[in-house]
Amino acid sequence: MSKTATAIADAFQDLVMQRGYNAVSYADLAQLLGMRTASIHYHFPGKADLGLAVLRRYTEAFFQALKEPTPDDPQSYVTAFESFLAPIRHMLTRDDTSCLCGVMSAEYASMSEDIQNELGAFFAKQSHWLATVLDGGTRAGVLTCPGPAKETARLMIAALQGATLIKKSTHDARYLENALDGLEALIIPGKKT
User: Fold this and answer.
1) What pTM did the predictor assign?
2) CATH tag, 54-187
3) What are the Cα distances from residue 114, in Å, to 50, 79, 119, 167, 169?
4) What percent of the chain is predicted at pLDDT more than 70?
5) Residues near 168 by Cβ (< 8 Å), separated by ≥ 6?
6) Rounded distance between C-alpha atoms, residue 145 and residue 131, angstroms
7) For position 91, what pLDDT does the model report?
């Protein structure tokens, strides 16, 4: 992306994480960035184009930040699990935001088919990755899983998505902090909250 396109994408992502996808217009972006809406349309002809570009960029950054476990290093499963929680833990510092994918999923029915597919793929890949880490870590004896890894991964993702939304609506980061600490204590033996 060009410097201008990146600035547009950054501003759009931030506003969507605060307000929701449908509550952000090109006029909002133009005012925030001090540019004309025509300039935004030049880089992203339609809102669905911008939404898809931002969602793909967010997804790529999320998965690039994850630490991959190494089967012959049991502790790497703990590191991988903690890398999963790190970007979510970062949201504790901002009352006004929630996960981009969670916010956009709340408006799923109004999204383009491409965005809908991308959202579904994000959560499927996230769930698969986390289940693989939980399963491997449990087998290596460094993580505990209260049930099948696949179901535990889904439960964790749902709990964290819900906690980010509640944190935002109550302006109380303890909802998310308690969810993060509780899940970490549940999964990492001996970890205290």
Assistant:
1) 0.92
2) 1.10.357.10
3) 12, 33, 9, 29, 28
4) 99
5) 95, 96, 97, 98
6) 10
7) 87
Structural tokens at position 90: 């970062």
Rounded to the nearest 10 degrees, the angle between the axes of helix 3-19 and helix 47-65 is 90
Q: How far apart are CA 168 and CA 115, in angstroms?
A: 23
Give phi and psi for 73, each to the nearest 5: -125, 95
- For residue range 92-125, what is the model confidence (pLDDT) as tens digits? 887 788 899 999 999 999 999 999 999 999 999 9
State the DSSP code for 147. S
Rounded to 5, what percent of the chain is helix, strand, coil?
75, 0, 25
With a cut of 60, say whether residue 165 has pLDDT above it: yes
Q: How many CB atoms lie within 10 A of CB 117?
A: 12
Cβ pair 54, 24 in contact under 8 A? no
